[in-house]
Amino acid sequence: MERAQMKTVNLKRIIPFFGLALFILAVGVLYHQLHTYRLHDIIVQVNAISPARIGWALVFTVCSYLTMTGYDMLALRYIQHDLPTARTVLTAFVSYAFSNNVSLAMVAGASVRYHLYSAWGLSAVEITQVVLFCSASLWLGYCALSGLVFTFQPLSLPQSLHWPLSTMQPLGILLLALTVLYWGLTLWGKKPWTFKAWRFVSPNWKISGVQIVVAAADWLLAGAVLYVLLPAPFPMGFAHFLGIFLIAQSAGIISQVPGGLGVFESVLLLLTPAALDVPQVLGTLVVYRGIYYLLPLLVAAVLLGIEELLRQRVLYTRIQSLAAGAMETLFIPLLSLVVFVGGAILMFSGAIPAVSQPLAYMNSELPLPFLELSHFLSSLVGMGLLLLARGLQRRLDGAYVLALGLLALGIVTSFLRDFDYGATAVLLVVLLVLLPCRRFFYRRASLLSETFTFGWLVAIAIVLISSIELGLFAFRHVEYRHELWWQFSASEAAPRFLRATVGSMALALGVGIARLLRPAPYRPAPAGVAVPESVAAIVRQSPSSTANLALLGDKQFLFNANRQAFIMFGVVGKTWVAMGDPVGPPEEWSELLWQFRQAASDHGARAVFYEVGHEHLHFYIDMGLSLLKLGEEARVSLDDFSLEGRARRKLRYIHRKLVKSGYGFEIVEPFSIGAYADTLRAISDAWLKEKNTREKGFSLGFFDPAYLQYFPVGLVRFQNEIIAFANIWQSDGFHELSVDLMRHRPDAPNGVMDFLFVEMMLWGRARGFHWFNLGLAPLNGMETKDMAPFWHRFSDFVMHIGDHFYNFQGLRAYKEKFNPVWRPKYLAARGGLSLPRTLTDIGALISGGLKGMLLK
């Protein structure tokens, strides 16, 4: 099991570097293709693209993104869920604008859809179906269009590739056959498809037919955007060009490089006939990137920014507030991505010579040191934004303030450097979108405290390598000399590139060294040692009775900076399981939760929060965690508790019966528990033997005299013999009571537990407590449909197996007799296929290992 986990972790680390290797290979191919050209040739071709061609490209881009929304509309029709068109279009557009610019596009698109569609009322099951339908649609359209193009307009492959096939026609026939086979299965295959625990219902033949047509049209329009930008007359028909475009796009997607950057371009140039003008094609690709990728991303950011402004001025209904919360969760990574793109633009523009006409005026009017400093600072600002984007993703307030400052500085330096209107406009839009979002960035943590994931490091490396390669290409005609470093002239751009590159690398290196010099990451102390007095002191001040689980002695603790709050947790494998919400003042929770997640990440583990309450779910949603309902907690109001009335007649009858039979109740204070330890242990051992079970832990107490000495214990006596006992958890401020261990002798009469509960509630009411917590009724309200996510089905399986041991269904029915108020409890963890493993680890932690899970 541990070996499998290590393989998974290693695979996660390898994938980003695999993408980086492909990117470097693609850059090498591009450099070889362009070795006889100059940057000026490409810039001339970019400027030669007419406004009419740009206009047509914009039209086809709009049509392409509108067509992509058809995936979601068909998916909603497939799952038979009605949703207003405007909401569907917004969700689909933001999803594709985001996923087209990052690696792992399916995962990114699924995350966007989860946050928005869940706010619009779709269940996790339905969202899963929508994501699978849209992903299948994308590749169905590819198969259909590629099959037609490769079959009837076969593309000849270069002999330099040494492929066994000379043309793409055999592959085209295969892809076309797969498309027809899929449609045929939906036409004649009425029965659901079953795979292990999953059951798939295929769409009807009408939906599948439209699905193929819409997806093929999407690919067709995406190719048309690039084709209309190419110079006319272009010596290649659209069908021939479309074949090259489809191959290049698939290579970019498979590479997992963000947006297929470099890979798409290199494959396209490799397959383009040698007779074509390479600078023309590459110049067109630059404009295509801006129109089809960056422009929709900026529009999506602006739309969400406008939504945030409206949310601050308009009073929303409950449903709208839920939607706004989903927008917020989605908005943060999108903002982070947009800021990252802004930094990349500054890095790229700093690597090439100025091309604007007003530069001569700037040279004559502004002092040379001012121009040199503007260029140098512009590149440093670009690298700074790349680094700060990670802090924005993690909601650091310092990252927000610095990002605003750097964006403002970048706007000024970019404009003064060479009147770069494009970069200036992009940075201005990013700044305006970021300005009203101050409330999202509330974490007062060090910028150096956040770890860069392998994916982030690779993304920064790709931008840095690209800017260096771009500069080397732009100044390839300049012979390198040591004197270049010290040449300062308005007409000498190569020295400025060298200095800016070294400055950017020095900034990145400085941040890296500072991170290496920071204090060592938190290492959890071994569990089982004595509970620190600082933990007990915080527990005594907590309004939650479940905070007393910290006193079991089987947990580890992570404190916040001022040691006023802590998280109690256990470690099993690669899972760090926090027990409940943090203990301490709620205003101390936010940074502590992020600190816990970061500590787990530093050790290659995943952070999980078990049995968290609904009052503070926004903390976990902010961290991008998924929520799984575990059950509901029963709380009885003691302010009006009594045995009078029709609703309590059964409890009243049992209580009076045992009192008349000679049973009594008493409270033993903590300092006197030692005298009763042997008797209570004998009762506990007999109870475990009768139930054919063994001690648990973590979320459940176990018999330990040292642990019991923290609490008062309620005893039931008969003829001076102890028949049953329960230790009583108390919270601060007489807010809540609860019970942990509750055990009785095998010969105890029926109803002894009811008697003990009633006596403890009456005792608590007399002392001024407001609530009695009966604990959790596990796994209530789980989805068990055919298409339910595997972890819901897994939990349902656990419920039925566990019911044999713990009678979960009977537990809820038993608690109902006290007329409690139910409130939900959740598991907050990363979604996806890791959840079944997470649930298994939690079960092993509670049961003392996998063996304990199976052997009660």
TrEMBL record:
<feature type="transmembrane region" description="Helical">
    <location>
        <begin position="399"/>
        <end position="416"/>
    </location>
</feature>
<feature type="transmembrane region" description="Helical">
    <location>
        <begin position="54"/>
        <end position="76"/>
    </location>
</feature>
<keyword id="KW-0472">Membrane</keyword>
<feature type="transmembrane region" description="Helical">
    <location>
        <begin position="373"/>
        <end position="392"/>
    </location>
</feature>
<keyword id="KW-0812">Transmembrane</keyword>
<feature type="transmembrane region" description="Helical">
    <location>
        <begin position="291"/>
        <end position="310"/>
    </location>
</feature>
<feature type="transmembrane region" description="Helical">
    <location>
        <begin position="330"/>
        <end position="353"/>
    </location>
</feature>
<feature type="transmembrane region" description="Helical">
    <location>
        <begin position="14"/>
        <end position="34"/>
    </location>
</feature>
<dbReference type="GO" id="GO:0055091">
    <property type="term" value="P:phospholipid homeostasis"/>
</dbReference>
<feature type="transmembrane region" description="Helical">
    <location>
        <begin position="171"/>
        <end position="189"/>
    </location>
</feature>
<feature type="transmembrane region" description="Helical">
    <location>
        <begin position="88"/>
        <end position="110"/>
    </location>
</feature>
<dbReference type="GO" id="GO:0005886">
    <property type="term" value="C:plasma membrane"/>
</dbReference>
<feature type="transmembrane region" description="Helical">
    <location>
        <begin position="130"/>
        <end position="150"/>
    </location>
</feature>
<dbReference type="InterPro" id="IPR051211">
    <property type="entry name" value="PG_lysyltransferase"/>
</dbReference>
<feature type="transmembrane region" description="Helical">
    <location>
        <begin position="242"/>
        <end position="271"/>
    </location>
</feature>
<dbReference type="Pfam" id="PF09924">
    <property type="entry name" value="LPG_synthase_C"/>
</dbReference>
<keyword id="KW-1003">Cell membrane</keyword>
<dbReference type="InterPro" id="IPR016181">
    <property type="entry name" value="Acyl_CoA_acyltransferase"/>
</dbReference>
<dbReference type="GO" id="GO:0016755">
    <property type="term" value="F:aminoacyltransferase activity"/>
</dbReference>
<feature type="domain" description="Phosphatidylglycerol lysyltransferase C-terminal">
    <location>
        <begin position="540"/>
        <end position="828"/>
    </location>
</feature>
<feature type="transmembrane region" description="Helical">
    <location>
        <begin position="453"/>
        <end position="477"/>
    </location>
</feature>
<dbReference type="InterPro" id="IPR024320">
    <property type="entry name" value="LPG_synthase_C"/>
</dbReference>
<keyword id="KW-1133">Transmembrane helix</keyword>
<protein>
    <recommendedName>
        <fullName>Phosphatidylglycerol lysyltransferase C-terminal domain-containing protein</fullName>
    </recommendedName>
</protein>
<feature type="transmembrane region" description="Helical">
    <location>
        <begin position="422"/>
        <end position="441"/>
    </location>
</feature>
<feature type="transmembrane region" description="Helical">
    <location>
        <begin position="209"/>
        <end position="230"/>
    </location>
</feature>
